[in-house]
Amino acid sequence: IKFEVDVMNEISKMMYNDIRKELEVVWQNARPYVGPKCRACRECNGINCRRIGAERSTTGARNYEKFQQIKIVYDTLYDGGDGSEIDSSVELFGHKFRAPVFSAPFGNVKSFQANTHFDSDYAINKCFVDGLANQDCAAWTPDTVNHPGLNVYEGPLKAIAERRGMGIPTIKAWGREEIQHKIRLADNAGAIAIGHDIDCVGLGYLSVNGGYHAYPKTSEQIKEIFSITNTPYVLKGIMTAKGAVKALKAGAYGIVVSNHAGNTMDQSLATIEVLPEIVRAVGGQMKIFIDGGISSGEEVFKAIAMGADAVLIGRPYLIAAEGGETRGVELYTQKIIWQLQNAMRMSGCRTLKDITRDHIVITKDF
User: Quick one: 283 exposed, middle or buried, by C-beta within 10 A (0-12, 13-18, 19+)?
Assistant: First the structure.
């Protein structure tokens, strides 16, 4: 499958300052729709609004804090060029993406963003899928309790099918038959990969006293469930080296190091804190994604330097879609790519493989 757009489209050619100016308007436009819990802050630190579902918001704030303790090392004495030699591309799922940048999945947006101007999960996810694909990146799409007429899984999956499979539908930890039904739907849509949200069992409505049912599973159970497909699958919600090894045993193509942005449990470690031990345990044997506390290209650089292959970004994409729909998502994606490429240029890294641990410094002990 080839992308249907020229990567040097209008937004790709924009100057960075012009992108920033337009995104300021996008963020202003979004505030009535994402409020009152979210203020669409310029920097989402998990503290200003404390909008994270877990009561004290400590995990979401820690995700941000630990990323800020990592700094990038300057090095501009090297044989360089005009910037066109900087290559931020990555190959995943058999596809070449312009950058290791994906949007995180959000389901039933009206349940946590009451003032959203989107009338369906299809509509907002259409913005994510198209906006990222227009910049040769991709969106992860959601799943949640499917109330009548909601179509939280099927609606966004339709947007992926309309984009010739360029997206990753993410299935929650339901029972075996429900998961396999949704795997078949993803295959029918031609999705390039399938996500499995294994840590959703801690969400308020799915937890031990929640009103709906989701189930932890063994490596053997997951492997059996996904045996019906040849599509690569990624387990989202891994936070330990042991968990990563179990995911490898389950036959997963990759994992997302994720604590669900702090929504499932207070007092968790930050994702970037646990990334190094996970990389040591399985690095090179599977692809490693990470989310939590990432909102700039510099943070993408830090995650790559710590051993990740790619990142997922959450709330900023919601804001971009609410304030600018598909164009807002595309503008924000281009901004992230530019920031990543600039960090690469400022540190003497021509490709992602050049972004190694010696290009960052951790200023405080994790």
Answer: middle
Assign 283 a pLDDT band (cuts: 50, 70, 90): confident
- CA distances (Å), 298 to each of 71, 124, 189, 310, 345, in order? 9, 26, 34, 13, 12
Q: Write the DSSP symbol of residue 198.
A: G
Per-residue b or e along 316-335, where b marks 16 or more CB atoms closer than 10 Å to that residue's CB: bbbbbbbbbbbbbbbbbbbb
Q: Kindly tell me the burial class for residue 74, based on how many C-beta atoms sit within 10 Å of its own C-beta (0-12, 13-18, 19 or more).
A: exposed
Distance CA 202, CA 239 (A): 14
The CA distance from 239 to 217, in Å, is 15
- Give the up-direction half-sphere exposure of residue 220: CA atoms within 13 A in the CB hemisphere: 0
Residue 235 backbone zone (phi > 0: left; psi -120 to 50: alpha; other: beta): beta
Written as six digits, the tokens of 54 are 């877990």
Environment class of residue 9 by beta-carbon count within 10 Å: exposed (0-12), middle (13-18) or buried (19+)? middle
> What is the C-alpha separation between 310 and 359, in angstroms, rounded?
17
Amino acid 307 reads: G
Q: Among 220, 251, 255, which residue's Cα sits nearest to residue 240?
A: 255
Residue type, 287: K
Identify the three-state secondary structure at position 87: strand
Residue 195 Cα to chain centre, angstroms:
11
Is the preceding omega at residue 36 within 30 degrees of 0, hence cis?
yes
Tens of pLDDT, residue by residue over 164-207, are 999 999 999 999 999 999 999 999 999 999 999 999 998 888 88
- Segments of 117-220 assigned E as strands: 138-141, 168-172, 194-197
Considering the chain, what percentage of its residues have pLDDT values greater than 90? 78
How many helical (H) and strand (E) elements, i.e. helices and strands, does the chain have? Answer: 10, 12
DSSP sequence for 17-74 = HHHHHHHHHHHHHHHHHHTTT----SS--SSSS---SSTT-HHHHHHHHHHHTEEEPP
